[in-house]
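lol ok so funny story. i was supposed to be doing the assay writeup but got distracted and ended up predicting the structure for this chain instead. priorities right. anyway since i did it might as well share w the group, maybe its usefull for someone
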Amino acid sequence: MHLLRTLCEIAAPSGHEAPLTEFLLNYIHQHAPGWRVQPQVLAGDDLQDCIILVFGQPRTAVFAHIDSIGYTVRYGRQLVRIGGPAAEHGARLVGRDGQGNIECTLTVDEETGALGYDFTRDIERGTELTYHCDFRETDEAVQSCYLDNRLGVWTALRLCETLEHGIVAFSCWEEHGGGSVKYLAKRIYEQYQVRQALVCDITWVTEGVHAGQGCAISLRDSLIPRRSYVERIRRIAAASGIPHQLEVEGSGGSDGKELQHGAQPWDWCFVGAPEDHVHTPDELVHKADIDSMLRLYQVLMREL
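and the output, tada:
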């Protein structure tokens, strides 16, 4: 869990993913020589802060978004949401502006719901604030801010260790409307003729998806993936014997939205561990679901 903790501690809200991109490129450079197959690494200005790793003769691409939720300082000690954080009065926020490091508290007006901060001075406008990372681990679970989606990034990196054929794409902006997957999907489709995808992200514990009972395969959210592709994934998962659950929701979304709305004929399916206390500093995921998620991705990328 040391790698997961490190990922959670790196501030990378939507639009400012560069610090995590730099960490990932350094990690890949350091660890790729020990992976089963050496990937082609695509990164740079034409991909903004995204990264594409190409292994062998790819048939399937994994998309994992590297950004997180947070807040932007406005005027008069006001804050604006980045994505959809569950703002709770008194939450610890951290950041840095031209005057130095910041550790402040989130304020929520009881009457209006307006967001602000409590700090010893005014923070420079445009400064990004993220949750203070308090990473906790027990025998059964891990709890921290930003498990969504640093756990998806962790899974993708661990998948790289044994992946022989496939593409791993680290995307940006997912928490705040998306935008990067469209050009990633176009590049991957045109250059490698790959058009089937797995969305490596974190879903929610609900009345039908329970913690500790395995990774969730989403049959639908606000969008509906092509049924024949999802059924292939279900058959592979059932044959593997790996614990998993089926999710059916009428709202929410992921990088799959951009794949379905894009100009190329992509098949996609969301596969991810469920978490509790979503978009708070205390996101909670069971280790059994983490294990299920990684093992299921290893099988799916081999069999699809």
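Residues 70-131 form a domain with the Elongation Factor Tu (Ef-tu); domain 3 fold (CATH 2.40.30.40). The first helix runs from residue 2 to 9.
back to the writeup now i swear
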